[in-house]
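Q: I'm writing up a methods section and want to include an example of the input and output format. Could you take the sequence below and give the corresponding predicted structure tokens, formatted cleanly so I can copy it straight into the document?
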Amino acid sequence: MRDESRPELSPEQKERLLAKIKSSKAYARAYQDVEFMGKKDLRPIRLQLELQKPEMVLREHKIRSTIVVFGSARILSPFEARLQLDIARKQAAAQPGSDALRRRVRQAQMRLEQSRYYEEARRFAALISRAQQNDKSLEFVMVTGGGPGIMEAANRGAWELGRKSIGLNITLPREQNPNPYMTPELSFQFHYFALRKMHFLMRAKALAVFPGGYGTFDELFETLTLVQTGKKRPLPIVLFGKEFWERVVDWQFLAQNGMISWADARLFKIVEHAEEGWEHIKRFWKRQREARRAKPGLSADPAEIAEEAEAARE
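A: Here is the clean output for your methods example:
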């Protein structure tokens, strides 16, 4: 029975109470509640979203296949490397007794030598983007980690020709800004390394790896492991820089000691120049097409084979 002695709320009082309800965290729509979406129990949902969003966007833009480019974020462009060397030399000349400044000059000289890899990655991306992207299809689109260094060089090579490229950036303790050469509508930011790695390889038809550190080695050896174990179909893997790769990894020693098979030591090809890398990629897919024609039983998915043949055209 209604208590007649309790007065009705005034319109103003009702508005204040409604405002409190609407401003409460509980009342917010779940998918709009950033704090709620960040809770530990929601991790499976966040993982699903990081898988789904880039996949949907890439499909909408009709990205059929990609070439992944990995390499150091610390490698500078020739212009930037020369600029830093000039500054280091001037500082060292002003304080000739400083050991620290002499070391800075040596480091700047090393960065200038390494800048050839930046230029090669830029040329590699331009060469393939010019050959593969046209009005009808987007094949072998460059995809990088979206950061500086080699990543910037590959995105830049496509950008300078007016072609599209993809960037898969990631949040890090030390903030990593995206490089300015990625195609804006194909630029993504990830929280989870695992989902980012999946998107690197889901459309990949080739892998190009330039000198780098832990991140570069992580991506390279994970890809080699996926191919070795059959979790990823074989694809051409090119390593740029013979002197670097043969010094940091003794592939022959690994095979001789039975840590990998001799076949595993041939899962990649070491090259020096962009043209070599592109020729190896084209030969690889040409052999794949010829093998399928010779053994039709291997062609389990006609649509996939047609896609690969189109992607590997010269």
